[in-house]
Amino acid sequence: MPRDILLKTDRLTKEFSGVRVLNEINLEIRRGEILGIIGENGAGKSTLVKILNGTYTPTYGQIYFEGQPVQIKDTSVAKRLGISMIPQEFNLIPELNVYENVFLGQEYQRGPFLLDTRRMRAKTRELLRELNTTISPDEKIQNLSVAGKQMVEIAKAIAQDCKLLIMDEPTTVLTAPEVETLFELMRRLKQNGVTIIYISHKLKEVREICDRVLILRDGDFVSLDPADSLDLRTMANRMVGREVGTILPPKVTPSEEVILEVAGLTVSGLVKEVSFQLKKGEILGFAGLRGAGRTELAEAIIGVRKKTAGRISIAGHERRINSPVDAVRNRIAYLSEDRQGIGILTNFELAKNVTLVSLPKYFRFLINPAVEKKRAEYYVDTFGIKTGSVYTRVEYLSGGNQQKVSLAKSLDPAPLIFIVDEPTRGIDVNAKREVYHFLHELVESGISCILISSELEELVGMANRVAVMREGSLVGILEGDQITEEEIMYYATGVTGGVSA
Amino acid sequence: MNYRDQLRTLWKKVDVEKHGPLFALLVLFILSSIASPYFLQTRNILNILRQVSYTGIIGLGMTFIIISGGIDLSVGSMTALVGGLAIMVLNYFGGGYLAIVAAVIAAIILGLLAGALNGLIVTKGKVAPFIVTLGTMAIFRSLTLYISNAGEFRSSSSLYPELGMGAILGIPVPVWIFFALAVIGQIVLNRTRYGRYVCAVGSNEKVALYSAINTDLVKFLSYVIAGFTVAVSAILLSSRLNSISSSNAGVNFELDAIAAVIIGGTSMSGGSGTVIGTVIGAVILGIVNNMLNMLGVSPYLQGTVKGLVIIGAVLIQHKKR
Known about the structure:
Chain A is 34% helix and 26% strand. By secondary structure, chain A is of the alpha/beta class.
C-alpha cells in the first residue's frame, strides 16, 4: 500500500438486527486530504464513521490504518491510533468548565495525584486562540452558545495528537461567519497534515471545502471523485439515485378565518409581549437569530413554559394552556427541534412512539396491540419510514427516519395547529423535499402551521407570512413581496423595524 | 464453527432482559434438585413460595416505581406501621369477622395514604425519591416504635391468623395473592395506558412531558401502587404472626423487594422492565436462601450470597449491552 494512504477499508459491512446499513465499502483515504461524505439519511454515512472511531464494530470487513490491519474495538483504541470524532450530538459535561472538558480523560498531572491545572489552562487557551475564538478556558460549558460548544469539541479532538479528524455535520448549528471560521481552521489543520472526514448535507459547503467527495446511497458505495469535478446537481442526483424534482411545493392561499390568536404573550426574560394571528390553512414563518426567543415562544404556547402575561385564543375562544396535556386537548401539536432530547423515546419501539401522544384517543384503559400496529404501519407506509418492523426500537433508525417517527407522533392526535421547530435541520435534500410537500398537504387540508426556521430559503419558499423576532420581541411581520432573505435579515439583526437593540 | 463458537452464538441470541431471569431460575432449580433430595418436595416448594410472597408482593409495586425512574426505601418501615395499626383496628373492633374486614380496609387506606405521602413529596416538592423515602423510612419506623412503646402489636383475635395461615387447594393464601397481583400488575404494565406512561416517564421524562403525559401524576400513582402492595403484605404478615414487632417487622424488606426487581431484569435507570421478572427474581432469592439453609451454610453468610446474586445479576445485564 502506498505511503500516502492513511486509512483503507476492505469490504466494510455493518448490519443492525439483520438490516444491512453499510454494504462492503472499499475506500482509501489519503493522508492530509479533506474527504467529504454525502448521502441521504440512512445512506450509511454516520455508520461508516462510527465504525472508524470505534463506536460500532463492523459485522465483517477489515480496516487498515497506516498500512497495518487494525481492530478498532472501542473509541479509546481509535484515540490511541489518532482518530477523533466530533459527534453530531455534543458530548460535553455542562457543569464542568472548558479546559476540564478539553482534557477530560487525558488530564495533565503533576506527580501521581495532583492535576496540572495551569498547564491544562494554558494549552486550552492556546488551542482556543488557534480556533480564533475568545472563549475563556474557565467558562462553564452550560454558559456557551452552540457554536462555542462546538469549538470546545474541536479543541478537545485536536488536544492530543490527531491524525484523522471526523466531523459529522459540524455546520448545521453554525451561522455563516462561524462556518467561515470553521473552514479556515480546517484548512490550517490540513496544512499541518491532519486528514479530515467531513459529513454534511450542505452540498455547496462540501464542494467548497473538500478535496474529494464520497457518495453513499442505501449503504452502497456510489462514487468517489474530486470535488471540483462535481456540480451540485450531479451530487444531489447521485445521492437520490434519480433526478431531484422541484424541492418546494407551491404556496396555498389561506382562508381569512383566524384559528389562533396570541396577544401580549410574555415569558419572563425570554419573550416580550408577542402578539400575532394565525389563519386557517396558513404557514406562518418565524425567523430570527439564535436566542431570539422563537422556541421559547412555542414552548409557552404549548404550556411547558410559564407565561407571565398574555392570552391565547383558539377559533375566537380564550383558552388556558398550562401543560402539553392542555395543548393536545386544544389540538395544538409541537415538533421539537431537539429530536432525541424532546421528540422521541429512543428505547421505545416505533409503534409505541407513534401512539404515545394519541393513546387516549384509541384506548380508554386497555391497549389493543392490533390497533396500535395498524396506526404504526399506516405512518411507515405514508411517510416511507425505513425500518425493520414497527417493533424496531427507534434508536436503530437513521436520523431522517427518526424525524419521520417524531412527525408521526405529533400528528397522530390530528391537530389543527401544528408548530414545527426547525423541521429540516440535519436532514438531506430528499427528506427535506418530503417534509415540505408534507407540510403543503397539511395546510391544504386546512391545518395551520407555525414554521420556526433558521433556513431563510425555507421561510421564503414556504411561508405565507414571516414573523421576525429579535431579543424576545416580535419586530415585524413580512407579507407577499416583502418576504425576501435580505428583508428578513434586516429585521432579525435590527437594521430595520421594531424596537432598537 | 467449533463447539465454543456455537455456544457463544447461542448466548448472543438470548435476550437477557426478557429470558435471563427465567434461565437463571431454571438453572438454579435444577442445581437445587440435584444438591438436595428434599428440595423438590411439595412442602418445601410451597414453603419457599410463601416465604417470598411478602417481599415479592411489595416488589410488584416497587417494579412500577423503579421503571418510572424512582425508588422507595420506606416500604419496610411502612409494612411495620401499616401492620401495627391494622392490628390496633382489629383489636378495637373485637377481633371478629367484621373486625378483620375493618382492619383490612384500614390497612389498605393507610398504605395508599403512606404511598401518596411519598409520591406527593417527590412530585410536588421536587425532592429526589431516594432522599424522600430515606426520610419517610425513618419516620414510619419511629412512629411504629412510639405507638407501641417499642414493643409488640399483639392481636387478641383467634380468627385473624386463619387469613395468613390458610391455604386454598393446598396452596397458601399469600402465594395465591402474590400470583394474582402479579398477573394484574403485568397486565397494567404492558397493556394499559398507565403502564405505557410509566415506561415513557422512566425512559425520558422530558419527552414524556412534551408528549402530553401528566408525568407528576404517573410518578405519584407509582408510589400509591407501592403503598397498596405494602398494605397487602402487611395484612398477610400480621395475620400470619398474629402480631407485629415494632422493631423487627419489615426490616430489610426494601432490600429484598428492590433485589427482586433488579434480579428480575428491570433496569435501575428506569424505562423498561417486567412484573413477571420481579416474581422470578423473588423466587430466585427464595430458592437461594432455602438451599443455603439445606446445605447448612451459616445464616450469617447468607447475606453475602444474596449480595453476590444481586451484583451478579446486574453484571450479566450490563455485559450484554
